[in-house]
C-alpha cells in the first residue's frame, strides 16, 4: 500500500516533471535516461532535481484548485454559476472526497519528498563549495513553502524530513508547532545562504526568502521578528519598487515588474509548462499553465451585441465578488478600476438596433442606477440591486463586475485555456502591509499608518493622494484586513489572511452571507483527503480532522 503523499518518489518527479534553463526562465522538459545515481551524484543531475522542486508550485498558483482553497470561502468571494467546488466556497457538505484538496495534498507531499531527498543527498552531488549552499537554500525555502501550505490547510498532519522511497503504510499526526519549527529553521538557512539575485527568473532569492519569513513570523504572532524581517526587505537595496500605477501591475507586458519579489513563472511556450501529456508529462495538470484568466469572468458572451473574444476572455464564471468586497473601494481608490472590468463593448455581427461596434453593450456596476436612466440606454445595465439581494446574498450569479487582474489577451485564440501569465506570490506591497500589521500589534500605530499610507498613496487616483491617507487612530486589525482585500483581491492569500488573524469565521458570517449558511467552527482546517485515510494502516492514530466524516 502506498500513501498518496509518496505516490511520486523523488526520482519519478525528476524524470517526469523536471525543469531546465532556457531563456532565463524555468521550463519543463523530459531528461530521458536519468537514474537516481546520476541525479544525486552529478551537478547536472542535481540541477534537474532542484528545478523540478519548483514545478510543484504550479499545482497551486494559477490553478483552479489553488484559487478555490485560498480565495473562495472567504468574506470577499462567493460562488458564481460555474463554481465546481461549492463545498469549498460555501462549505456545503465539505468532506475528504473533494478533488481539489485531494490533488493538492498529493502534489504538496510529492514536492516535500523531492525536497527532502535533495537536502539529504546534496553532499553526493559534487557541487562546488560556492554553489552547494545556494542550492540547499533553494530546497529549504521550497520545503518550508510547501509545508506552510500543508500546515495551514490541514493543520497538524504528516510531517517528515526524510526522503520516502518504496511502500509506506503509516502516517503521523505532528503538531503544527513542530512543522513551523522546521519551516523557521529552513527559512533561516535560506535567508543566510541565498544570493540577492539569481540568473534564472523565478528562482528564490535572499529578498524573497526574507519576505516569506516575515510572512511566517506574522502568521505565528512573532511580531517583532516579522517587523525586523520586513524592514530587512524594505531596506535591503534589492531594487524592489512599487509600480506607480496599480493597473500596470497586471499588464502582460509587465510580468517582470520590480514590485514582484517572488513569482511562479509560466513559459510563453505553453508546451513547456505543465499540461498533462501521456507521452512526456503524464503527471501534469489536466488544464495546465495559468488558468486564473478564466475563473473570475462573468457570462458576457450571450448578451445582445456581444460575442466571445480574446479581449474579454473565456468566461468560466466560477467566482464572483461579494457585495462587501465591491463596497470596500472608495471613489478615490484606483484599485477598483485597476482590478475590475465593468463595461463590455459591442463586438458581435448582430446587435440591437442603434448599437454600433464599439458601443457599450453591457455595463455591470456595484452602484445603483435609477430605472429612469436605465430606460434611456441601449445597453444592458446590471446594477447593484440586480446582482445582490437587500441582505447581500447573490441574486444573479451570471453577471457581475469581473476581476480583470489575470486577463491575458496575448493568448493564441479566445478559447485557449492556458495563459503564460506569471503568478505574483509575494509583492512589495505585501511587505509594507506585513510591517504595518506588526507595528500595530507592537503598539506603534503611527508607524503602522505610515506603512499603510505608502500602499494607499500608490492606490490613489490622480489628485486624490491626500484623501487616501489614514490616521493612526484608524489602524485596526479589521482595517488592515480591509486594506489587504483592496490590494490583494484574488491573489491566492485571502483564506490564509483570515485564518492567520483569527477572523475567518467572524468575517464570513458578517460579510459573505452565501458562504455563511453552512459554516462551522471546524472549517478553519480542511478535511484530509479520503484517499489518504483509506491508504494508511494506522487508522486509529491517523484520523480525519475533527468535524468531518
Automatic annotation (TrEMBL):
Residues 312-548 form the RagB/SusD domain. It is found in: Cell outer membrane. One of its GO terms (cellular component) is cell outer membrane. InterPro entries: SusD-like_N, SusD_RagB_dom, TPR-like_helical_dom_sf. Residues 1-23 form the signal peptide. Gene3D superfamilies: 1.25.40.390. Residues 75-218 form the SusD-like N-terminal domain. Keywords: Cell outer membrane, Membrane, Signal. Belongs to the SusD family. This is Membrane protein.
Amino acid at each position: 500500500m502506498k500513501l498518496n503523499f509518496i505516490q511520486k518518489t523523488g526520482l519519478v518527479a525528476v524524470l517526469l516533471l523536471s525543469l531546465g534553463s532556457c531563456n532565463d526562465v524555468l521550463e519543463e522538459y523530459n531528461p530521458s535516461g536519468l537514474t537516481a545515481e546520476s541525479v544525486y551524484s552529478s551537478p547536472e543531475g542535481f540541477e534537474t532535481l532542484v528545478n523540478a522542486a519548483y514545478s510543484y508550485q504550479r499545482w497551486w498558483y494559477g490553478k483552479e484548485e489553488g484559487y478555490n482553497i485560498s480565495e473562495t470561502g472567504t468574506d470577499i468571494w462567493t460562488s458564481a454559476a460555474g463554481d465546481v467546488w461549492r463545498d469549498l466556497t460555501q462549505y456545503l457538505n465539505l468532506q475528504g472526497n473533494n478533488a481539489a484538496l485531494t490533488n493538492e495534498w498529493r502534489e504538496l507531499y510529492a514536492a516535500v519528498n523531492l525536497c527532502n531527498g535533495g537536502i539529504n543527498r546534496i553532499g553526493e552531488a559534487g557541487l562546488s563549495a560556492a554553489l552547494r549552499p545556494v542550492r540547499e537554500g533553494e530546497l529549504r525555502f521550497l520545503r518550508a513553502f510547501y509545508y506552510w501550505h500543508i500546515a495551514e490547510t490541514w493543520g497538524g498532519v504528516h510531517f517528515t524530513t526524510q526522503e520516502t522511497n518504496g511502500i509506506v503504510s503509516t502516517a503521523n499526526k505532528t503538531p503544527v508547532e513542530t512543522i513551523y519549527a522546521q519551516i523557521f529553521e529552513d527559512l533561516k538557512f535560506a535567508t543566510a545562504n541565498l544570493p540577492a539575485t539569481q540568473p534564472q527568473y523565478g528562482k528564490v532569492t535572499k529578498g524573497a526568502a526574507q519576505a516569506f519569513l516575515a510572512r511566517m513570523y506574522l502568521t505565528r504572532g512573532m511580531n517583532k521578528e516579522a517587523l525586523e524581517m520586513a524592514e530587512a526587505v524594505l531596506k535591503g537595496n534589492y531594487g524592489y519598487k512599487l509600480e506607480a500605477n496599480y493597473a500596470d501591475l497586471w499588464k502582460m507586458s509587465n510580468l517582470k515588474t520590480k514590485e514582484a519579489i517572488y513569482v511562479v513563472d509560466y513559459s510563453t511556450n505553453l508546451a513547456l509548462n505543465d499540461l498533462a501529456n501521456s507521452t512526456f508529462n503524464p503527471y501534469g495538470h489536466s488544464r495546465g499553465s495559468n488558468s486564473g484568466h478564466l475563473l473570475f469572468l462573468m457570462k458576457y458572451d450571450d448578451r445582445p451585441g456581444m460575442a466571445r473574444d480574446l479581449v474579454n476572455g473565456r468566461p468560466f464564471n466560477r467566482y464572483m465578488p461579494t457585495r462587501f468586497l465591491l463596497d470596500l473601494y472608495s471613489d478615490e481608490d484606483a484599485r477598483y478600476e485597476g482590478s475590475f472590468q465593468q463595461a463590455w463593448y459591442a463586438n458581435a455581427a448582430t446587435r440591437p438596433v442603434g448599437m454600433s461596434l464599439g458601443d457599450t453593450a453591457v455595463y455591470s456596476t456595484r452602484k445603483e442606477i435609477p430605472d429612469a436612466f436605465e430606460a434611456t440606454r441601449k445597453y444592458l445595465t446590471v446594477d447593484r440591486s440586480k446582482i445582490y439581494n437587500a441582505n447581500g446574498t447573490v441574486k444573479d450569479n451570471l453577471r457581475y463586475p469581473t476581476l480583470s487582474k489575470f486577463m491575458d489577451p496575448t493568448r493564441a485564440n479566445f478559447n485557449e485555456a492556458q495563459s503564460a501569465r506569471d503568478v505574483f506570490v509575494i509583492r512589495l506591497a505585501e511587505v509594507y502591509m506585513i510591517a504595518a500589521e506588526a507595528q500595530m500589534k507592537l503598539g506603534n500605530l503611527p508607524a503602522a499608518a505610515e506603512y499603510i499610507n505608502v500602499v494607499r498613496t500608490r492606490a490613489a487616483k490622480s489628485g486624490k493622494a491626500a484623501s487616501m491617507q489614514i490616521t493612526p487612530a484608524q489602524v485596526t486589525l479589521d482595517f488592515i484586513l480591509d486594506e489587504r482585500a483592496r490590494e490583494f483581491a484574488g491573489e491566492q492569500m485571502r483564506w490564509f489572511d483570515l485564518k492567520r488573524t483569527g477572523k475567518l469565521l467572524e468575517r464570513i458570517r458578517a460579510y459573505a452571507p452565501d458562504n455563511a449558511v453552512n459554516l462551522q467552527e471546524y472549517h478553519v482546517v480542511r478535511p484530509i483527503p479520503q484517499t489518504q485515510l483509506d491508504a494508511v494502516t494506522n487508522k486509529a492514530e491517523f484520523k480525519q480532522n475533527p468535524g468531518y466524516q
